What we know:
- The chain folds into four domains: 2-159, Resolvase, N-terminal catalytic domain (Rossmann fold, 3-Layer(aba) Sandwich); 171-286, Hect, E3 ligase catalytic domain fold; 304-368 and 444-514, no CATH class; 516-564, no CATH class.
- It is built from 20 helices and 21 strands.
- The strands form seven sheets. Strands 2-1-3-4-5 form a five-stranded mixed sheet, with helices on both faces.
- Helix 4 (91-103) crosses helix 6 (126-140), helix 8 (188-202) runs antiparallel to helix 9 and helix 11 (273-286) crosses helix 18.
- The mean pLDDT is 78.
- It binds zinc ion.
- This is DNA invertase Pin-like site-specific DNA recombinase.
- GO terms for molecular function: DNA binding; DNA strand exchange activity.
- Residues 3-154 form the Resolvase/invertase-type recombinase catalytic domain.
Amino acid sequence: MEAILYVRWSTKDQSKGDTERRQIELGASICRQRGWTLAETLIENGKSAYHGRNRAEGGKLYEVEERAARGELAGKVLIVEAMDRLSRQEPLESVTLLNRLAKRGLTICESSTGTIYDAQRISEHWAHLLIAFARAGEAHDSSRIKAKRVSAAWRRTQTDLTTKKGADDPRLCPAWMEVIDGKFTVIEDRADIIRGIFERSANGYGLRLIAKWAQEERQRLGWPKATWHIRNVTNMLHDRRVLGEYQPMMRTENGGRSKAGEAVKRYPAIVTLELWHQVMSGLESRKGTGGPRQKCANVLSNLCRCTYRAPGSNLPCGSRMTLRRQKRGPAQITCSDFSRAGECTCNAAYRYDDILAGVLDNLLSLAMPAPSTIGQHSRVPVLRAELTTKRKRLEEMADRLMEQDDEVLEAAFRRFKAKVDVEAAELKALEAHEEKRTHATDPHAVAEQALALREQMATDADARIKVQSYLGQLIDVIFMDPSDRSATIVVMGGLRVIKLDKHGKVIGDVNTAHMLKDQSIIDKLGREVTLDANVDNWNRVLAGDNPMRLTKLDEVAQSATEAA
Ligand SMILES: [Zn+2]
Protein backbone atom coordinates (compact mmCIF):
# COMPACT_ATOMS: atom_id res chain seq x y z
CA MET A 1 0.00 0.00 0.00
CA GLU A 2 1.17 3.51 -0.76
CA ALA A 3 1.46 5.85 2.16
CA ILE A 4 1.37 9.62 2.47
CA LEU A 5 2.99 11.04 5.56
CA TYR A 6 1.44 14.24 6.83
CA VAL A 7 3.78 16.24 9.10
CA ARG A 8 2.67 19.40 10.76
CA TRP A 9 3.70 21.70 13.56
CA SER A 10 2.28 25.01 14.56
CA THR A 11 4.16 28.28 14.78
CA LYS A 12 3.93 27.98 18.54
CA ASP A 13 5.72 24.64 18.76
CA GLN A 14 8.87 25.09 20.85
CA SER A 15 11.11 22.66 19.06
CA LYS A 16 10.33 22.52 15.37
CA GLY A 17 13.29 20.34 14.47
CA ASP A 18 12.40 17.78 17.12
CA THR A 19 8.74 17.73 16.18
CA GLU A 20 9.52 17.25 12.52
CA ARG A 21 12.14 14.58 13.17
CA ARG A 22 9.85 12.69 15.57
CA GLN A 23 6.88 12.74 13.21
CA ILE A 24 9.02 11.58 10.28
CA GLU A 25 10.67 8.82 12.30
CA LEU A 26 7.35 7.56 13.62
CA GLY A 27 5.89 7.56 10.12
CA ALA A 28 8.86 5.70 8.66
CA SER A 29 8.80 3.10 11.41
CA ILE A 30 5.08 2.40 10.99
CA CYS A 31 5.66 1.98 7.23
CA ARG A 32 8.42 -0.54 7.95
CA GLN A 33 6.22 -2.42 10.41
CA ARG A 34 3.29 -2.71 8.03
CA GLY A 35 5.19 -3.03 4.79
CA TRP A 36 3.83 0.18 3.29
CA THR A 37 5.71 2.21 0.70
CA LEU A 38 6.16 5.81 1.67
CA ALA A 39 5.18 7.61 -1.53
CA GLU A 40 5.24 11.21 -0.34
CA THR A 41 5.78 13.32 2.72
CA LEU A 42 3.71 16.45 3.12
CA ILE A 43 5.26 18.96 5.48
CA GLU A 44 2.95 21.68 6.66
CA ASN A 45 5.18 24.29 8.12
CA GLY A 46 3.82 26.53 10.83
CA LYS A 47 0.16 26.14 10.05
CA SER A 48 -2.17 26.03 12.98
CA ALA A 49 -4.73 23.29 12.90
CA TYR A 50 -6.60 25.04 15.67
CA HIS A 51 -8.09 27.61 13.37
CA GLY A 52 -8.29 25.23 10.47
CA ARG A 53 -5.71 27.22 8.48
CA ASN A 54 -4.13 23.98 7.30
CA ARG A 55 -7.43 23.14 5.69
CA ALA A 56 -7.72 26.50 3.98
CA GLU A 57 -6.56 26.96 0.41
CA GLY A 58 -2.77 26.72 0.10
CA GLY A 59 -2.56 24.32 3.04
CA LYS A 60 -1.32 20.79 2.48
CA LEU A 61 -4.36 19.25 4.13
CA TYR A 62 -6.52 21.28 1.77
CA GLU A 63 -4.68 19.56 -1.06
CA VAL A 64 -5.27 16.18 0.53
CA GLU A 65 -9.00 16.88 0.85
CA GLU A 66 -9.14 18.05 -2.74
CA ARG A 67 -7.27 15.06 -4.09
CA ALA A 68 -9.42 12.73 -1.99
CA ALA A 69 -12.54 14.40 -3.36
CA ARG A 70 -11.27 13.71 -6.88
CA GLY A 71 -10.79 10.07 -5.88
CA GLU A 72 -7.03 10.17 -6.38
CA LEU A 73 -6.22 8.85 -2.98
CA ALA A 74 -8.43 5.76 -2.86
CA GLY A 75 -6.51 2.75 -1.56
CA LYS A 76 -3.78 4.86 -0.02
CA VAL A 77 -2.98 5.44 3.60
CA LEU A 78 -2.51 8.80 5.25
CA ILE A 79 -0.17 8.72 8.25
CA VAL A 80 -0.46 11.35 10.94
CA GLU A 81 1.26 11.38 14.31
CA ALA A 82 -1.92 12.04 16.23
CA MET A 83 -5.40 13.08 15.21
CA ASP A 84 -4.74 16.54 16.60
CA ARG A 85 -2.09 16.98 13.88
CA LEU A 86 -4.92 16.68 11.37
CA SER A 87 -7.43 18.91 13.03
CA ARG A 88 -7.99 20.68 16.27
CA GLN A 89 -11.29 22.19 15.37
CA GLU A 90 -14.49 21.26 17.13
CA PRO A 91 -14.55 17.52 17.88
CA LEU A 92 -17.55 16.97 15.63
CA GLU A 93 -15.82 18.83 12.81
CA SER A 94 -12.76 16.61 13.24
CA VAL A 95 -14.82 13.45 13.10
CA THR A 96 -16.60 14.68 10.01
CA LEU A 97 -13.27 15.29 8.34
CA LEU A 98 -12.05 11.83 9.30
CA ASN A 99 -15.22 10.23 8.02
CA ARG A 100 -15.15 12.15 4.76
CA LEU A 101 -11.56 11.18 4.00
CA ALA A 102 -12.26 7.55 4.88
CA LYS A 103 -15.35 7.44 2.68
CA ARG A 104 -13.19 8.52 -0.26
CA GLY A 105 -11.22 5.32 0.21
CA LEU A 106 -8.35 6.78 2.17
CA THR A 107 -7.08 4.84 5.17
CA ILE A 108 -5.83 6.97 8.06
CA CYS A 109 -3.20 5.70 10.46
CA GLU A 110 -2.34 7.39 13.72
CA SER A 111 1.37 6.59 14.03
CA SER A 112 1.67 7.36 17.75
CA THR A 113 -0.85 4.66 18.67
CA GLY A 114 -0.91 2.50 15.55
CA THR A 115 -4.69 2.87 15.31
CA ILE A 116 -6.11 2.56 11.82
CA TYR A 117 -9.26 4.17 10.50
CA ASP A 118 -10.92 3.26 7.21
CA ALA A 119 -14.52 3.47 6.03
CA GLN A 120 -15.25 -0.19 6.74
CA ARG A 121 -13.77 -0.11 10.22
CA ILE A 122 -15.56 3.11 11.04
CA SER A 123 -18.89 1.57 10.16
CA GLU A 124 -18.08 -1.73 11.85
CA HIS A 125 -16.44 -0.42 14.98
CA TRP A 126 -18.13 2.58 16.38
CA ALA A 127 -15.59 2.42 19.18
CA HIS A 128 -12.89 3.65 16.82
CA LEU A 129 -14.93 6.69 15.97
CA LEU A 130 -15.51 7.30 19.63
CA ILE A 131 -11.81 7.13 20.39
CA ALA A 132 -11.08 9.56 17.60
CA PHE A 133 -13.86 11.77 18.85
CA ALA A 134 -12.48 11.78 22.40
CA ARG A 135 -8.96 12.38 21.17
CA ALA A 136 -9.99 15.32 19.08
CA GLY A 137 -11.59 16.69 22.22
CA GLU A 138 -8.39 16.12 24.11
CA ALA A 139 -6.41 17.89 21.42
CA HIS A 140 -8.45 20.95 22.17
CA ASP A 141 -6.94 21.08 25.61
CA SER A 142 -3.44 20.67 24.36
CA SER A 143 -1.33 21.77 27.28
CA ARG A 144 -1.04 18.29 28.72
CA ILE A 145 -0.06 16.71 25.44
CA LYS A 146 2.45 19.44 24.79
CA ALA A 147 4.04 18.89 28.20
CA LYS A 148 4.44 15.23 27.30
CA ARG A 149 6.16 16.13 24.05
CA VAL A 150 8.58 18.50 25.73
CA SER A 151 9.61 15.77 28.10
CA ALA A 152 9.95 13.41 25.13
CA ALA A 153 12.34 15.91 23.55
CA TRP A 154 14.39 15.98 26.76
CA ARG A 155 14.35 12.20 26.89
CA ARG A 156 15.78 12.21 23.36
CA THR A 157 18.55 14.57 24.48
CA GLN A 158 19.19 12.15 27.32
CA THR A 159 19.50 9.18 25.00
CA ASP A 160 21.79 10.79 22.41
CA LEU A 161 23.25 13.43 24.74
CA THR A 162 23.34 15.71 21.80
CA THR A 163 21.76 19.04 21.06
CA LYS A 164 19.41 19.43 18.13
CA LYS A 165 22.35 20.23 15.90
CA GLY A 166 23.99 16.93 16.80
CA ALA A 167 26.70 18.41 19.02
CA ASP A 168 27.39 17.01 22.48
CA ASP A 169 25.02 18.69 24.91
CA PRO A 170 26.81 21.00 27.39
CA ARG A 171 23.88 20.63 29.81
CA LEU A 172 24.99 17.04 30.43
CA CYS A 173 28.63 17.92 30.87
CA PRO A 174 30.31 16.90 34.13
CA ALA A 175 32.32 19.68 35.81
CA TRP A 176 35.61 18.20 34.56
CA MET A 177 34.55 18.40 30.94
CA GLU A 178 33.62 21.00 28.37
CA VAL A 179 32.19 20.87 24.88
CA ILE A 180 34.74 21.85 22.25
CA ASP A 181 33.82 21.63 18.54
CA GLY A 182 30.68 19.75 19.51
CA LYS A 183 32.56 17.03 21.42
CA PHE A 184 32.85 16.28 25.14
CA THR A 185 36.44 17.17 26.00
CA VAL A 186 38.28 16.52 29.27
CA ILE A 187 39.58 19.57 31.15
CA GLU A 188 42.83 17.87 32.08
CA ASP A 189 43.88 19.85 35.14
CA ARG A 190 40.44 19.34 36.70
CA ALA A 191 40.47 15.67 35.76
CA ASP A 192 43.87 15.39 37.46
CA ILE A 193 42.24 16.39 40.76
CA ILE A 194 39.48 13.80 40.30
CA ARG A 195 42.08 11.14 39.49
CA GLY A 196 44.04 12.25 42.55
CA ILE A 197 40.92 11.68 44.67
CA PHE A 198 40.57 8.14 43.34
CA GLU A 199 44.27 7.34 43.67
CA ARG A 200 44.36 8.58 47.25
CA SER A 201 41.30 6.55 48.14
CA ALA A 202 42.83 3.45 46.53
CA ASN A 203 45.93 4.04 48.64
CA GLY A 204 43.86 3.99 51.79
CA TYR A 205 43.54 7.70 52.56
CA GLY A 206 40.44 8.64 54.52
CA LEU A 207 37.77 10.96 53.15
CA ARG A 208 38.75 13.82 55.45
CA LEU A 209 42.34 13.88 54.21
CA ILE A 210 41.26 13.51 50.59
CA ALA A 211 38.72 16.32 50.89
CA LYS A 212 41.34 18.61 52.44
CA TRP A 213 43.79 17.87 49.63
CA ALA A 214 41.16 18.21 46.89
CA GLN A 215 39.94 21.51 48.28
CA GLU A 216 43.47 22.95 48.27
CA GLU A 217 44.10 21.74 44.73
CA ARG A 218 40.81 23.12 43.62
CA GLN A 219 41.54 26.57 45.02
CA ARG A 220 45.00 26.51 43.47
CA LEU A 221 43.37 25.85 40.11
CA GLY A 222 40.75 28.54 40.60
CA TRP A 223 38.02 25.99 39.88
CA PRO A 224 34.95 27.94 40.89
CA LYS A 225 31.83 26.98 42.84
CA ALA A 226 31.21 25.32 46.16
CA THR A 227 33.91 24.07 48.49
CA TRP A 228 34.71 20.40 48.66
CA HIS A 229 34.05 18.41 51.77
CA ILE A 230 33.64 14.79 52.77
CA ARG A 231 30.17 14.60 51.24
CA ASN A 232 31.19 15.70 47.72
CA VAL A 233 34.23 13.45 47.81
CA THR A 234 32.07 10.45 48.75
CA ASN A 235 29.67 11.27 45.92
CA MET A 236 32.56 11.71 43.53
CA LEU A 237 34.00 8.30 44.45
CA HIS A 238 30.68 6.70 43.49
CA ASP A 239 30.08 8.77 40.37
CA ARG A 240 30.31 6.48 37.34
CA ARG A 241 30.60 9.48 35.03
CA VAL A 242 34.35 9.27 35.70
CA LEU A 243 34.17 5.96 33.79
CA GLY A 244 32.44 7.76 30.94
CA GLU A 245 28.97 6.55 31.82
CA TYR A 246 25.89 8.68 31.75
CA GLN A 247 22.79 7.64 33.69
CA PRO A 248 19.60 9.30 32.44
CA MET A 249 17.36 10.36 35.32
CA MET A 250 13.79 11.56 35.48
CA ARG A 251 11.64 13.34 38.00
CA THR A 252 9.27 11.12 39.90
CA GLU A 253 5.78 12.24 40.83
CA ASN A 254 6.75 12.98 44.44
CA GLY A 255 9.58 15.27 43.34
CA GLY A 256 12.40 12.73 43.71
CA ARG A 257 14.61 11.39 40.99
CA SER A 258 14.73 7.92 39.56
CA LYS A 259 16.68 6.18 36.84
CA ALA A 260 15.22 6.49 33.35
CA GLY A 261 16.67 3.66 31.32
CA GLU A 262 20.09 2.10 31.14
CA ALA A 263 23.35 3.93 31.74
CA VAL A 264 25.20 4.60 28.50
CA LYS A 265 28.88 4.98 27.69
CA ARG A 266 29.04 8.53 26.49
CA TYR A 267 31.90 10.60 27.91
CA PRO A 268 35.65 10.06 27.72
CA ALA A 269 36.62 8.07 30.83
CA ILE A 270 39.10 9.73 33.18
CA VAL A 271 39.52 6.84 35.62
CA THR A 272 40.28 3.23 34.65
CA LEU A 273 37.93 0.42 35.61
CA GLU A 274 40.78 -1.17 37.57
CA LEU A 275 41.26 1.93 39.70
CA TRP A 276 37.50 2.23 40.14
CA HIS A 277 37.15 -1.28 41.51
CA GLN A 278 40.22 -0.93 43.67
CA VAL A 279 38.59 2.12 45.24
CA MET A 280 35.26 0.30 45.62
CA SER A 281 36.79 -2.69 47.38
CA GLY A 282 38.86 -0.36 49.57
CA LEU A 283 35.79 1.61 50.60
CA GLU A 284 33.95 -1.66 51.21
CA SER A 285 36.69 -3.01 53.48
CA ARG A 286 36.87 0.23 55.47
CA LYS A 287 33.07 0.52 55.84
CA GLY A 288 32.11 1.34 59.40
CA THR A 289 35.71 1.59 60.62
CA GLY A 290 35.65 5.38 60.71
CA GLY A 291 38.44 5.35 58.15
CA PRO A 292 42.17 5.29 58.75
CA ARG A 293 43.60 7.69 61.33
CA GLN A 294 46.03 10.32 60.25
CA LYS A 295 49.03 8.64 61.86
CA CYS A 296 47.76 5.11 61.50
CA ALA A 297 49.90 3.66 64.26
CA ASN A 298 48.01 0.37 64.35
CA VAL A 299 47.94 -1.21 60.93
CA LEU A 300 45.90 -4.16 62.23
CA SER A 301 43.20 -2.11 63.97
CA ASN A 302 40.58 -2.69 61.27
CA LEU A 303 41.21 -6.41 60.94
CA CYS A 304 41.67 -7.91 64.41
CA ARG A 305 38.69 -8.95 66.52
CA CYS A 306 38.53 -10.11 70.12
CA THR A 307 36.88 -13.54 70.30
CA TYR A 308 36.57 -13.75 74.06
CA ARG A 309 33.32 -15.29 75.27
CA ALA A 310 32.07 -14.24 78.65
CA PRO A 311 31.15 -17.23 80.87
CA GLY A 312 27.63 -18.36 79.98
CA SER A 313 27.59 -16.49 76.70
CA ASN A 314 27.84 -17.93 73.22
CA LEU A 315 28.65 -14.63 71.58
CA PRO A 316 32.25 -13.59 71.14
CA CYS A 317 33.14 -10.04 72.14
CA GLY A 318 33.87 -9.00 68.53
CA SER A 319 35.59 -5.78 69.54
CA ARG A 320 38.55 -4.31 67.64
CA MET A 321 42.06 -4.21 69.04
CA THR A 322 43.77 -1.16 70.53
CA LEU A 323 47.51 -0.65 70.36
CA ARG A 324 49.19 -0.10 73.70
CA ARG A 325 52.75 1.14 73.75
CA GLN A 326 54.72 0.26 76.84
CA LYS A 327 57.69 2.04 78.33
CA ARG A 328 59.45 -1.27 78.51
CA GLY A 329 58.86 -4.27 76.33
CA PRO A 330 57.12 -4.71 73.02
CA ALA A 331 53.96 -2.89 71.88
CA GLN A 332 50.78 -4.84 72.58
CA ILE A 333 47.28 -4.99 71.23
CA THR A 334 44.36 -5.63 73.56
CA CYS A 335 40.59 -5.72 73.28
CA SER A 336 39.37 -2.14 72.72
CA ASP A 337 36.22 -2.79 74.68
CA PHE A 338 38.23 -4.04 77.65
CA SER A 339 40.66 -1.12 77.50
CA ARG A 340 37.71 1.30 77.51
CA ALA A 341 36.44 -0.54 80.60
CA GLY A 342 33.48 -1.85 78.64
CA GLU A 343 31.71 -5.16 79.11
CA CYS A 344 34.52 -7.41 77.88
CA THR A 345 36.66 -8.76 80.72
CA CYS A 346 39.41 -10.16 78.51
CA ASN A 347 42.74 -8.70 79.52
CA ALA A 348 44.84 -10.81 77.12
CA ALA A 349 47.61 -8.86 75.41
CA TYR A 350 49.10 -9.86 72.05
CA ARG A 351 52.48 -8.82 70.70
CA TYR A 352 51.68 -6.38 67.93
CA ASP A 353 54.98 -6.62 66.05
CA ASP A 354 55.00 -10.43 66.12
CA ILE A 355 51.44 -10.74 64.82
CA LEU A 356 52.04 -8.10 62.12
CA ALA A 357 55.25 -9.84 61.07
CA GLY A 358 53.39 -13.17 60.95
CA VAL A 359 50.70 -11.62 58.73
CA LEU A 360 53.24 -10.05 56.38
CA ASP A 361 55.42 -13.18 56.27
CA ASN A 362 52.45 -15.17 54.99
CA LEU A 363 50.90 -12.46 52.85
CA LEU A 364 51.99 -13.83 49.49
CA SER A 365 50.63 -17.27 50.28
CA LEU A 366 47.40 -15.70 51.56
CA ALA A 367 46.93 -13.69 48.39
CA MET A 368 45.46 -16.39 46.22
CA PRO A 369 43.91 -15.30 43.00
CA ALA A 370 40.22 -16.09 42.91
CA PRO A 371 39.53 -18.24 39.84
CA SER A 372 37.56 -16.24 37.38
CA THR A 373 34.47 -17.42 35.59
CA ILE A 374 34.85 -14.84 32.88
CA GLY A 375 35.12 -16.11 29.36
CA GLN A 376 34.55 -19.82 29.52
CA HIS A 377 31.56 -19.99 31.81
CA SER A 378 30.05 -16.54 31.63
CA ARG A 379 26.28 -16.71 31.43
CA VAL A 380 26.09 -13.09 30.33
CA PRO A 381 26.13 -13.62 26.53
CA VAL A 382 23.42 -16.30 26.73
CA LEU A 383 21.22 -14.20 29.01
CA ARG A 384 21.75 -11.16 26.81
CA ALA A 385 20.68 -13.07 23.70
CA GLU A 386 17.65 -14.51 25.47
CA LEU A 387 16.63 -11.08 26.64
CA THR A 388 16.91 -9.63 23.13
CA THR A 389 14.60 -12.35 21.81
CA LYS A 390 12.13 -11.76 24.61
CA ARG A 391 12.18 -8.00 24.07
CA LYS A 392 11.40 -8.56 20.41
CA ARG A 393 8.46 -10.75 21.37
CA LEU A 394 7.34 -8.05 23.77
CA GLU A 395 7.37 -5.50 20.96
CA GLU A 396 5.31 -7.81 18.78
CA MET A 397 2.81 -8.21 21.59
CA ALA A 398 2.68 -4.42 21.98
CA ASP A 399 2.02 -4.05 18.25
CA ARG A 400 -0.80 -6.57 18.39
CA LEU A 401 -2.18 -4.81 21.44
CA MET A 402 -2.30 -1.54 19.51
CA GLU A 403 -4.29 -3.15 16.73
CA GLN A 404 -6.79 -4.90 18.92
CA ASP A 405 -7.74 -3.65 22.32
CA ASP A 406 -8.01 -6.96 24.14
CA GLU A 407 -8.03 -7.45 27.92
CA VAL A 408 -6.60 -10.96 27.85
CA LEU A 409 -3.84 -9.86 25.52
CA GLU A 410 -3.10 -6.88 27.70
CA ALA A 411 -2.88 -9.01 30.85
CA ALA A 412 -0.53 -11.43 29.08
CA PHE A 413 1.55 -8.49 27.89
CA ARG A 414 1.85 -7.08 31.41
CA ARG A 415 2.83 -10.46 32.89
CA PHE A 416 5.43 -11.00 30.22
CA LYS A 417 6.77 -7.48 30.60
CA ALA A 418 7.16 -7.93 34.37
CA LYS A 419 9.12 -11.11 33.73
CA VAL A 420 11.36 -9.43 31.17
CA ASP A 421 11.98 -6.55 33.60
CA VAL A 422 13.10 -8.98 36.30
CA GLU A 423 15.44 -10.77 33.90
CA ALA A 424 16.88 -7.47 32.72
CA ALA A 425 17.65 -6.55 36.33
CA GLU A 426 19.30 -9.94 36.90
CA LEU A 427 21.42 -9.55 33.80
CA LYS A 428 22.50 -6.13 34.92
CA ALA A 429 23.56 -7.43 38.33
CA LEU A 430 25.50 -10.26 36.71
CA GLU A 431 27.23 -7.87 34.33
CA ALA A 432 28.21 -5.63 37.23
CA HIS A 433 29.53 -8.65 39.10
CA GLU A 434 31.60 -9.82 36.15
CA GLU A 435 32.92 -6.35 35.52
CA LYS A 436 34.07 -6.24 39.14
CA ARG A 437 35.68 -9.64 38.82
CA THR A 438 37.50 -8.94 35.55
CA HIS A 439 38.84 -5.65 36.74
CA ALA A 440 39.61 -6.60 40.32
CA THR A 441 43.23 -6.00 41.17
CA ASP A 442 45.31 -9.14 41.25
CA PRO A 443 45.67 -10.11 44.94
CA HIS A 444 49.29 -11.03 44.36
CA ALA A 445 50.07 -7.56 43.07
CA VAL A 446 48.35 -6.05 46.12
CA ALA A 447 50.41 -8.25 48.45
CA GLU A 448 53.62 -7.29 46.69
CA GLN A 449 52.77 -3.60 46.96
CA ALA A 450 52.24 -4.05 50.69
CA LEU A 451 55.48 -5.96 51.16
CA ALA A 452 57.44 -3.35 49.21
CA LEU A 453 56.50 -0.86 51.91
CA ARG A 454 57.47 -3.15 54.77
CA GLU A 455 60.72 -1.38 55.63
CA GLN A 456 59.20 2.10 55.48
CA MET A 457 56.33 1.28 57.80
CA ALA A 458 58.29 1.98 60.98
CA THR A 459 58.96 5.60 60.06
CA ASP A 460 56.43 6.55 57.41
CA ALA A 461 52.74 7.14 58.27
CA ASP A 462 51.79 7.19 54.55
CA ALA A 463 53.29 3.74 54.10
CA ARG A 464 51.30 2.47 57.09
CA ILE A 465 48.05 3.87 55.67
CA LYS A 466 48.72 2.15 52.35
CA VAL A 467 49.64 -1.18 53.95
CA GLN A 468 46.49 -1.02 56.08
CA SER A 469 44.43 -0.52 52.93
CA TYR A 470 46.15 -3.40 51.11
CA LEU A 471 45.67 -5.76 54.05
CA GLY A 472 42.03 -4.73 54.16
CA GLN A 473 41.65 -5.74 50.50
CA LEU A 474 43.24 -9.15 51.06
CA ILE A 475 42.12 -10.27 54.49
CA ASP A 476 38.55 -10.69 55.74
CA VAL A 477 39.28 -10.72 59.46
CA ILE A 478 41.85 -11.83 62.05
CA PHE A 479 40.34 -13.61 65.05
CA MET A 480 42.31 -13.10 68.27
CA ASP A 481 41.91 -16.00 70.67
CA PRO A 482 42.75 -15.15 74.30
CA SER A 483 42.95 -18.83 75.37
CA ASP A 484 46.24 -19.41 73.53
CA ARG A 485 46.82 -15.87 72.26
CA SER A 486 46.72 -17.14 68.69
CA ALA A 487 45.63 -15.11 65.70
CA THR A 488 43.55 -16.75 62.96
CA ILE A 489 43.72 -15.01 59.59
CA VAL A 490 40.61 -15.58 57.46
CA VAL A 491 40.77 -15.02 53.70
CA MET A 492 38.27 -15.56 50.85
CA GLY A 493 35.29 -16.04 53.11
CA GLY A 494 36.99 -18.87 54.99
CA LEU A 495 38.28 -20.88 52.02
CA ARG A 496 41.77 -20.09 53.26
CA VAL A 497 42.65 -19.84 56.96
CA ILE A 498 46.06 -19.49 58.59
CA LYS A 499 46.55 -19.72 62.32
CA LEU A 500 49.51 -17.95 63.98
CA ASP A 501 50.78 -18.62 67.49
CA LYS A 502 51.52 -15.77 69.85
CA HIS A 503 54.96 -15.28 68.25
CA GLY A 504 53.48 -14.98 64.78
CA LYS A 505 54.58 -18.46 63.68
CA VAL A 506 52.23 -20.55 61.53
CA ILE A 507 50.59 -23.37 63.51
CA GLY A 508 47.73 -24.16 61.18
CA ASP A 509 46.92 -23.72 57.51
CA VAL A 510 43.59 -24.70 56.01
CA ASN A 511 43.21 -24.42 52.27
CA THR A 512 39.94 -25.45 50.72
CA ALA A 513 40.56 -23.45 47.57
CA HIS A 514 40.89 -26.72 45.69
CA MET A 515 37.11 -26.72 45.88
CA LEU A 516 37.25 -23.87 43.44
CA LYS A 517 36.80 -25.89 40.32
CA ASP A 518 33.60 -26.67 38.50
CA GLN A 519 31.64 -29.41 40.17
CA SER A 520 28.37 -31.07 39.35
CA ILE A 521 26.14 -32.22 42.14
CA ILE A 522 22.84 -34.07 42.00
CA ASP A 523 20.46 -32.35 44.36
CA LYS A 524 17.61 -33.91 46.33
CA LEU A 525 15.19 -33.44 43.45
CA GLY A 526 17.53 -35.37 41.20
CA ARG A 527 18.55 -32.33 39.18
CA GLU A 528 22.12 -31.77 38.21
CA VAL A 529 23.41 -28.57 39.73
CA THR A 530 26.67 -27.15 38.43
CA LEU A 531 28.66 -25.12 40.90
CA ASP A 532 31.09 -23.10 38.90
CA ALA A 533 34.51 -22.15 40.12
CA ASN A 534 33.41 -18.94 41.68
CA VAL A 535 34.20 -17.92 45.23
CA ASP A 536 30.81 -16.33 45.68
CA ASN A 537 29.01 -19.49 44.69
CA TRP A 538 31.04 -21.49 47.18
CA ASN A 539 30.48 -18.87 49.85
CA ARG A 540 26.78 -19.40 49.29
CA VAL A 541 27.20 -23.14 49.69
CA LEU A 542 29.24 -22.69 52.87
CA ALA A 543 26.67 -20.23 54.18
CA GLY A 544 23.95 -22.87 53.97
CA ASP A 545 22.42 -22.13 50.60
CA ASN A 546 23.34 -25.65 49.63
CA PRO A 547 21.57 -27.40 46.75
CA MET A 548 21.89 -30.68 48.63
CA ARG A 549 19.96 -29.26 51.54
CA LEU A 550 16.72 -28.18 49.90
CA THR A 551 13.89 -27.52 52.31
CA LYS A 552 10.39 -28.97 51.95
CA LEU A 553 9.25 -25.52 50.84
CA ASP A 554 11.82 -25.42 48.04
CA GLU A 555 10.66 -28.81 46.81
CA VAL A 556 7.03 -27.70 46.71
CA ALA A 557 7.92 -24.45 44.95
CA GLN A 558 10.09 -26.31 42.48
CA SER A 559 7.47 -28.88 41.55
CA ALA A 560 4.93 -26.06 41.21
CA THR A 561 7.08 -24.16 38.73
CA GLU A 562 7.84 -27.33 36.83
CA ALA A 563 4.12 -28.10 36.59
CA ALA A 564 3.41 -24.58 35.31
ZN1 LIG B 1 36.91 -8.28 73.98
